[in-house]
Amino acid sequence: MEVEEDGKLPFLDVSLSRNADGTLGHTVYRTLTHTNRYLNKDSNHHPRQKRGIIKTLVERARRICDPEDIEKELKHLEEAFIANGYSSQEIKRAIRPNRHRGGDSHEKNAEQSGFACLPYIHKVTDRIGKLLEKKKVKTVFKPTKKIQQSLGSVKDKNDPLVTPGVYRIRCTCGQLYIGTTRRSISTRIGEHKRHCRLGHTEKSEVAEHAFNDGNHRILFEETEVLDNTQRYFPRLTREAIEIHKHQENFNMIEETAKLKRYGRALRSLPHRL
């Protein structure tokens, strides 16, 4: 919880202060660790996006600051953006009040016949955008792939068996079992193994198949994870779909009865999707 210090109290982007006459003053609030680093002028972004950052911060200053504090805040923004590579002329042009009327933009949007989102490549897609605008196609630009995206994540991927989800166990006879669990799949597989070893056919459909339908060998080592999800209904839905897809399953009748919940939608699916 924020606490008032020296007559000032921060609230979101606003710094509230007590005036001598008992009224409240308002200005933009920044944390002590704020670095004033914004999108650099040399970054590979469309100029419209760079101007948009300046305009957004200027508009924030005009909305928050008291009249006597606006010039100080605008001066601060100018110095910050100069440090980020922008020229004074670019900053002043972005700071200039917007004189366009909202009605004009609505009329322009109504005339547009399409929308296109293009990766920004300097002197290539910006020219394409101008051609599209002549055809009344609104164009926006997004940054190209970043180095971090190309390198990928350095984190180790989680073993799919240690998460909840839907799984498939095969038998040497050619049949298979589709199951789901809200615990880790490896935990549930361990229970199936134990029931098979101890002959607990009433506790596991896998154990019942292994003992009651002949001397089968369950291929636990080839367990396949079909879907990893913790949510209850998506798991049941995926399990029902997989049971429908694999007619050679040895799931109990109670398990296959789940298909009735999904009615015509599942019955219209091919057995092999």
Order of helical and strand elements: EEEHHHHEHEHEEHHEHHH
Looking across the biggest beta sheet, what order are the strands in?
1-2-3
Structural class: alpha+beta
CATH architecture identity of the largest domain = 3-Layer(aba) Sandwich
The major β-sheet equals: 3 strands, antiparallel
Helix content: 40-55%
Return the domain count: 3
Query: Helical stretch count?
Result: 11
What is the terminal-to-terminal distance? 54 Å
Say which CATH homologous superfamily of the largest domain is assigned: GIY-YIG endonuclease
Strand-residue proportion: 15-25%
Q: Outline the low-pLDDT stretches.
A: none
CATH topology of the largest domain: GIY-YIG endonuclease
Shape by Cα distribution: elongated
What is the average per-residue confidence, as pLDDT, rounded to a whole number? Answer: 82
CATH class of the largest domain: Alpha Beta
Tell how many strands the DSSP assignment holds. 8
